[in-house]
Amino acid sequence: KVDYDVCSNYGNWLYSAGIGNDPRDNRKFNMIKQGLDYDGNGDYVRLWLPELQGIKGADIHTPWALNSAALSQAGVTLGETYPQPVVTAPEWSRHVTQRPQGRSPHPRRGPARTPVQRKGRGIDFYFSRKKDV
Predict the structure, then answer these.
(1) CATH architecture of residue range(s) 28-97
(2) Which key words tag this protein in UniProt (predicted)?
(3) What per-residue string of b and e applies to 76-93 under the rule 16 or more CB within 10 Å gives b?
C-alpha cells in the first residue's frame, strides 16, 4: 500500500523542516525513532531502498551503525553501494544504542510505548466542555 495524502504529507514535510506550527522550542523530527515506531521491521524502507534489502530487521534504519561484517554480509558498502550519512543528529544515538547491534531474534515492531491519554485532552477537550459565554 502506498500512502499519499497531499495535505498531510506537505504538513509533515514542513514540520520536519522545522517551519511547521509547534509551540515547543527546539522541536526536532527524529527520523530514526519514527522509523522504529512505525516501520519496526523496515519493510517500508526495503520497498524504496532495494540496495539495503540484505539488512535484516530494524537495523535497516541505521546502516551506518552496523559493523563491517554485518554490512558485508548484507552486501552493503557505505560510500559505494549506499551513501555515508550526511549528518547524524545527536538525538539519534539513543535509538541506535538502545537495541543490540547485529541480528536481534525479536525485531522491534509497532510503537515503542503506548501513548498516555491525559484527562481533559483529545477531541473531547475541545468539543465536550461547556463554555462560558
Answers:
(1) Orthogonal Bundle (1.10)
(2) FAD, Flavoprotein
(3) beeeeebeeeeeeeeebe
